[in-house]
Amino acid sequence: MKTLILTAIIAITLVSCNQKNKETENNSTETVTNSNELFTCSMHPEVTGKKGEECPKCGMELTKPILSKKQEDVKTIDTITTPETKVTTVAPSDYTEDIIISYINLKNKLVNDNSNGAADNSKTLLASLQRFDTKTLNAKQKKEFLDIADDAKEHAEHIANNAGKIDHQREHFATLSKDINDLIKMFGTNQKLYQDYCPMYNDGKGAIWISETKEIKNPFYGSQMLTCGSLKKTL
Q1: Is 71 a member of any domain?
Q2: How many CB atoms lie within 10 A of CB 64?
Q3: What residues contact residue 129 under an 8 Å CB cut-off, 6+ apart?
C-alpha cells in the first residue's frame, strides 16, 4: 500500500515538473521573439532598433514596429480596393455623329446617281434617328429634338421606300438636309463639315446640303451638274 502511494506521488511530481518546463520554454521563446523584433522612429523611419530605444536624430522612442515581409503582404492584400465600375454614358453628340455619318453616306449615293444605294442608306439613317435616347435631354431639348427628328424620319422613309425614283428621293433629301443642319446647330459635331448651296435646285429657290469635303459634289443633280453649287459656311 505504501509503495502504491509513493509511486503516485512521484508520478504527480514528474508531470508537474514537465508542465513547468514547457511553460518556461514557451516564455523563453516569446522573450527571444520579442527581443528580436525591430522598431523604428515615426519621424525617421530609416532608424531602427529595439522598442523604447531613443532615436539618435530626434530623441523620440522607437515605437513603430517594422513589419515582416509576410505581414506586409497581408497588409497589402487587405488594403486593396476594388475600383468602382465605370458607367459609360452616351452623350447626345454621340447619337448625332451616328446620324451624320448615315446622312453623309446617303448624300454620296445621290451624288453618284445610285437610287438603290440611297434607299439602303436612308434605312440606316432612319435607324440612327430612332436609336437616339431622349432620356439624355432636358424637357426643352427633347421637344426641339423630336420636332426635328420626326420630320427627318418622314423624309428618310420616303427616300427608303422609293428606290428607282431618284428625282423623288432628291426632293425629300432637300428637306432632310435642313433637318440635319438643325441637329448640328443643336448638338454640334466633332467632324469638320461644310454647308454647301445649290442655287438652281427647286426652280431656282435653292437648297443646302451637308458635306464632309470642301470639294463641291452636288447630290441634287449628280453627274448632270456635279460641280454646281458653292460652299456656304463651315460647320
Answers
A1: no
A2: 16
A3: 99, 149, 152, 153, 156
